[in-house]
Amino acid sequence: MVEKTEGLNLLILSVVLTGFVGLLFHLYNGVLLKPKKLRLKLQNQGIKGPCPSFLYGNIHEMKRIQLQALSTAKSAHKDLKPDFSHHWFPTLFPYLDKWRNEYGSMFLYSTGNLQLLCTTDMEMVKEIGLHKSLSLGKPSYLTKDRGPLLGQGILSSSGPIWSHQRKIIAPEFFPDKVKGMVNLMVDATISMLKSWESRVEWEKGILEIIVDEDLRNLSADIISRACFGSNYSKGEEIFSKLKALQMAMAKTYIGIPGMRYLPSKNNREIWKLEKEIDSLILSVVNHRTEEATHGKDLLQMILDGAETYDDYKGLSKERFIVDNCKNMYFAGYETTATTLSWTLMLLAASPDWQARVRAEVLETCKDGFLPDANALRNMKTLTMVILETLRLYPPATFVIRLALEDIDFKGIMIPKDMNIQIPIPALQQSLQLWGPDAHQFNPERFANGIVEACKVPQAYMPFEDVANIKHEVQQPDKKLEDLKVEIKSELKGFLNLMTKGDLFSDKGKSPAESSVTGVGASAKSPFSIEPNALPLTIGRSCADGPLFLWG
Question: Which UniProt keywords apply (predicted)?
Fold first, then answer.
């Protein structure tokens, strides 16, 4: 009996030791050996970068450079009135700007054990844009570190899972299927404008409000109705919790091994919100399936797609529905609300362009006519303004792709598991690509379209991830129509937008202190950059409508 007990103990001990050694090797390989091999393969091809530290990569250096740049920006802001420049990328991402100047258009850096090849080399950017093989996919951190937020939906999945979902979802976004949403957007925008008018009357002709908050609510209202139809109030609750989840996840770093498993206060909040959101979405789905009749909203499109969806590569039908409902939030709410805020702010700073856009809007909307999708496409001036806004302030800051196998891009061999990062604003504000006025607001550059506006049209990529749903342009075109509807309604409803003081100034803040939210590739990189919460003063100035002052 004693011998049997000793033998059992030895067996247990050997299993524990084997497991421990295996765990150590796994950690050693994932944290040290594999990242080092990836960097070495690119370093041997002449691509350099800052030296990373153990576990944290270049995170500490990034924070140091950013704090130094912020201190410099504050000092400059005290001494001088800032120029009316939109060249914000070096201020918000000084480490990327510094390394690009030091190492060239392609360089390596890391956040934790996440290895990134940052590139602004246009030949490689063009190759990536033209690459349609499933060998290039989305970074794995989107489904791991950002899993509670994005899951394995169409915006975050790769390879066969992405391809399978795309075949189901993409047809639901063809232009003929989204035209019916124009009236929904018009109604919601008019409702917001009426609330502004009522508040102006209540305040005896003048009112100061934080416009971006109302624009967020407008965007949330539209996407809630578009997604959930008659259940839009439940949709608003879902989107509110998604926003809270997004803010909680913005506090976490990407690429640090094991951080998402620690039961910290922030992680517990993330787990709680994820569970609540999933439960709310499934509740709406269950209610929808019990209804005898229902509208053709985005939720129904996803549910119809799920009818032909079998559990694929471990992704269940239930997860397919939940994750893609979350993805619709980012594809709709985030991009529209942020771009709308920037567009109105830029029009406020540009009276000439504001007058041109308003004249076009009034011409299109004569005799109370509300334009349909076809009329919106003919609004050339408004299109130019939106394209220029998206150039200066793209909804997403980076395009990031993961090499799912070794890939050759113009003689550069990208090893499997290397993340390729393209900083969108660095390309869209390049003097070499856009000319000497690249840092200025000049919609005229788009008078003959994107091809004539830039030396290399592929450098314009504000909707790169959204366009990737279909490898085509209908979804970006639909996004432009969304923005046109809302801006058209707002400009028709008032007389003037005017700036008062510095465009970026909010109680003395510099551009580096602009509100940044969301998720991205590096430590706390933004999913989107947003304007400061500047108040809009509304007051009736003449019979034509209210006067809007931004300041």
Answer: Heme, Iron, Membrane, Metal-binding, Monooxygenase, Oxidoreductase, Transmembrane, Transmembrane helix
